[in-house]
């Protein structure tokens, strides 16, 4: 008997190599963890064959924007909501947060196993909290700044791919961000920014992100680029012009985006942050009987809903046990149901939040702008996702549906961009930007991360009402040469690896 030429051959598919071009008919041969051949392999002997006739074969998707480090830190590692979308590499540590120390965090991932490959950035907020723990001032001293820079260097040495800032407390000065990113710039890495404002201050925030590139030379990734709130929808032209202008003058600026116009978050941080903070500071709710304070909250809530574009754009979901009276209802619907003003809805939600956690979904983004952002050549696809225990509590549909939604809804149904371009935004573009040199392409020598999907049927099934739905039309996902999803069934093993920065 002849020895096998390849461990696995994926035969007869339409191969998209990730570079942006259209597909060509070819077989691909994998052995060990690598792609060994692309071409006519009909004469080869394979250990196993996957028939991809009528299907697209492309590099595994590289998700530049996840929050998986939070899941790892709380011991949730083995969910397959990302893998089933075709995501073979996740980049964790975003919006300013990350695991720390990097070496320990990555060792944990290695020990416990992960379904996709795993890489991480160093979070500014994470580092800042450690350095500033006992600080008197909200701003770092020169010494504290130096300490943060030293931690960035350490994190990069331990394998982080770059740094991330999230403006969690909005105290960070421009100077602090520049100082924080300098060591990452010196190492030739990337800075991912959840920019200072995504609504009223959007244009200043885009300018600030670009100025970091201007001052340090670092590659800047604007995370989940959006125009939040109808009053800010017309700012997209200028925002894109600024990004294009920066790129034209040689600065390395790009962005990512998820294909949804709604966001999802905890209501304590959204509808009644002042109320919540006051109650926490005062250790009770007595002050809510004070008409002056209520009047102040009323103005805040009205102002907030104005910014969202009206009370029908904010919907509640349960984050712990279900609350049938409010789950899936908007502020407008609750106002009608209870015959009350927005402030009373806010106070009632805040009160219920003490018993069980309530989340909010805001439909405050523009579909037209979403299309323009997704199609822009400097924008790649990213989920902004978490690992999800199947069926547990309300969550954002992007956790299950981001990549199939772009491929099915925006490419096949709406023709927003070519399939080759969409695949580039999911593969080689993030790979190059984040320094993953041997991934994101289907060519001999690269790591064998491969997705096989049906271009005629691929689609997301997750919705805001029921997010725990796997997509349709992605039968096979290969991670490091191993069949991680075969015929729609996830393997129990963990084939992902930790990806550390390559010097
Ligand atoms: Zn963010």
Summarize the structure.
33% of the residues lie in helices and 19% in strands. It is an alpha/beta fold.
Question: Could you please describe the fold and organization of this structure?
Answer:
The protein has 15 helices and 21 strands. The chain has 503 residues and is an alpha/beta fold. The protein folds into two domains: 61-262 and 365-435, TIM Barrel (Alpha-Beta Barrel), CATH 3.20.20; 264-361, no CATH class. The strands form four sheets. Strands 1, 2, 3, 4, 5, 18, 19, 20 and 21 form a nine-stranded mixed beta sheet that branches. Strands 9-10-11-12-13-17 form a six-stranded parallel beta sheet. A three-stranded parallel beta sheet has the order 6-7-8. It starts with 5 loop residues before the first strand and ends in a 13-residue tail after the last strand. The mean pLDDT is 94. Bound molecules: zinc ion.
List keywords for this structure.
19% strand; 503 residues; TIM Barrel; 15 helices; 2 domains; binds zinc ion; 6-stranded parallel beta sheet; 9-stranded mixed beta sheet; 21 strands; alpha/beta; single chain
In the CATH hierarchy, the architecture of the largest domain is Alpha-Beta Barrel
Largest sheet: 9 strands, mixed
Structural class: alpha/beta
End-to-end separation in angstroms reads: 44 Å
Proportion of residues in helical segments? 25-40%
Whole-number count of domains: 2
% residues in beta strands: 15-25%
Identify low-pLDDT runs.
Answer: none
Helical segment tally? 15
Heteromolecules bound? zinc ion
* Radius of gyration based on Cα positions: 23 Å
CATH superfamily of the largest domain: Metal-dependent hydrolases
> Class of the largest domain in CATH?
Alpha Beta
Got a strand count? Answer: 21
What sort of overall outline do the alpha carbons produce when their principal axes are compared?
globular
């Amino acid at each position: 008997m002849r020895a096998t030429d390849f461990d696995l051959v994926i035969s007869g598919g339409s191969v998209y190599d990730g570079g942006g071009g259209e597909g060509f008919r070819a077989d691909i041969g994998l052995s060990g963890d690598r792609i060994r051949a692309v071409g006519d392999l009909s004469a080869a002997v394979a250990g196993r064959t996957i028939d991809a006739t009528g299907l697209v074969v492309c590099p595994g998707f590289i998700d530049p924007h996840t929050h998986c480090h939070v899941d790892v830190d709380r011991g949730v590692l083995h969910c397959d909501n990302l893998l089933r979308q075709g995501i073979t590499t996740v980049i964790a540590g975003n919006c300013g947060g990350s695991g720390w120390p990097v070496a320990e965090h990555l060792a944990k991932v290695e020990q416990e196993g992960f379904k996709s490959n795993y890489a991480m950035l160093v979070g500014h907020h994470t580092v800042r909290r450690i350095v500033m723990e006992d600080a008197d001032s909200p701003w770092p001293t020169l010494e504290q700044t130096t300490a943060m820079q030293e931690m960035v260097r350490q994190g990069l040495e331990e394998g982080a791919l770059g740094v991330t800032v999230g403006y969690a407390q909005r105290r960070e000065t421009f100077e602090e961000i520049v100082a924080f990113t300098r060591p990452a710039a010196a190492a030739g890495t990337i800075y991912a920014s959840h920019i200072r404002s995504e609504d009223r201050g959007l244009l200043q925030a885009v300018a600030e992100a670009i100025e970091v590139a201007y001052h340090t030379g670092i590659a800047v990734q604007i995370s989940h680029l959006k125009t939040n709130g109808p009053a800010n929808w017309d700012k997209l032209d200028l925002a894109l012009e600024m990004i294009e202008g920066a790129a034209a003058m040689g600065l390395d600026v790009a962005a990512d985006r998820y294909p949804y116009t709604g966001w999802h978050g905890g209501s304590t941080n959204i509808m009644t942050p002042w109320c919540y903070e006051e109650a926490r500071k005062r250790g009770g709710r007595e002050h809510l009987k004070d008409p002056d304070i209520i009047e102040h909250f009323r103005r805040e809530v009205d102002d907030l809903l104005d910014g969202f574009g009206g009370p029908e754009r904010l919907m509640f979901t349960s984050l712990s046990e279900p609350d049938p009276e409010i789950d899936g209802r908007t502020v407008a619907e609750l106002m009608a149901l209870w015959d009350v003003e927005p402030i009373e809805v806010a106070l009632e939600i805040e009160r219920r939040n003490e018993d069980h956690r309530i989340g909010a979904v805001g439909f405050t983004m523009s579909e037209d702008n979403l299309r323009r952002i997704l199609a822009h050549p400097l924008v790649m696809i990213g989920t902004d996702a978490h690992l999800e225990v199947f069926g547990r509590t309300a969550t954002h549909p992007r956790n299950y549906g981001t990549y199939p939604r772009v491929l099915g809804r925006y490419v096949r149904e709406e023709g927003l961009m070519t399939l080759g371009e969409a695949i580039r935004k999911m593969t080689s573009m993030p790979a190059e930007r984040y320094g993953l040199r041997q991934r994101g392409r289907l060519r001999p020598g690269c790591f064998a991360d491969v997705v096989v999907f049906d271009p005629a049927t691929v689609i997301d099934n997750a919705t805001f009402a029921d997010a725990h739905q796997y997509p349709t039309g992605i039968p096979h996902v290969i991670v490091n040469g191993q069949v991680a999803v075969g015929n729609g069934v996830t393997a129990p093993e963990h084939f992902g690896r930790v990806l550390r920065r390559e010097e």
